[in-house]
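Thread: Newbie trying to understand structure tokens

Hi all, I'm a second-year student working on a class project, and my supervisor (Dr. K.) asked me to get a predicted structure for one chain before our next meeting. I've only ever worked with sequences, so writing a 3D structure as a token string is new to me. If someone could post the tokens and maybe explain what I'm looking at, I'd be very grateful. Here's the chain:
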Amino acid sequence: MDVSDFKTLFGDSIRTWLDWDALDDENARVEDLVLLSREDVGELYTVWHVDPAGNPGEWSHPQHRPLTIAQAAGTDWPDDRQEKLDRIGEELADDDEPVQLTVPVYRADDNLVVLDSNHRIVGAYRAEADLRVLLVVLAGPASSLVLPGLAQVENDRAGRI
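---
Reply by user tm_fold:
Sure, no problem. This is what the structure looks like when written as tokens:
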């Protein structure tokens, strides 16, 4: 799979702002990664941010920080997001089979950011479902011009290591 195939497969569903024109087969590649460990899934970054008080925030605010899947699963969200996460969790609670998800992510250096399916993966993680996650990884430049909010992800990860 190349960058064009990734865009064809996921481009219309990704609502996260991504500068597709800045990505091509010269500076980006597509790879896959399978995650079976709850810890590994929990370490993925969402595109969701919180302010210093822990309230929902915006990527465009320099003091707001991005959340990992594990952090997002433990956050109290506004009603609309909370209801969606609860609904996903309820659907998965009675399922004895592993939950299999295919998730597009952006990789810049060692940072993996979920581009789409944040609700599904956080809801499944929150429900403590047995997860089998296929990441379709668009590995590209570590630039906030390509993916806004990437600088906050890099700063957050550096602060956690």
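A couple of things are worth pointing out once you decode it. The longest strand covers residues 99-108. Helices lie at 3-10, 38-42, 69-73, 79-93, 118-126, 150-160. Feel free to ask follow-ups in this thread.
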